[in-house]
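As a representative case, the lines below give one protein's residues and fold tokens.
***
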Amino acid sequence: MVKKKIPKVELLFIAISLCFGLACLTFYIWYQTEIIRLGLEIRRAEETINKLETEIKSLEAVKASLLSLERVEKIARQALNLTEPQPAQLIYEEFIPELKR
């Protein structure tokens, strides 16, 4: 049986072609995994945004309840012992349109 000798140039071309093919395959696999990783990261960020928006809404509700006029008046009357002003304590200013700034 006679073996045919493969020229070195042809062998080098085959080796370079295989390396290029493996490099392309490696790049494609890396690219796909990066797309998946970024998609997961985006989903986590969106979930975090949704949680923060929900927390903001609940904090705004708490703020509104704490700043309600009934609550403020109750604290002013009970804790600070404030009362309605007497008519003699009221000072009225006249509105003069010429002095309007």
User: Anything to note?
Assistant: The chain is about 70% helix and 0% strand. The radius of gyration is 39 Å. The first helix runs from residue 8 to 66.
